[in-house]
Amino acid sequence: MPTTIFLDYEVAIRNSAYSVFPCINAKGCFFHYKDDDNIHQLVRRAAVLPLIPFDEVEDVWFNALTDIDQIDTNINYTAFTDYVTTYWVEQNSHLWNHYLTQGPRTTNRLEGMAQQAEETCHASTSNQIKLLKHEEAFNALTMIQ
Question: What's residue 123's pLDDT?
Answer without folding.
Answer: 60
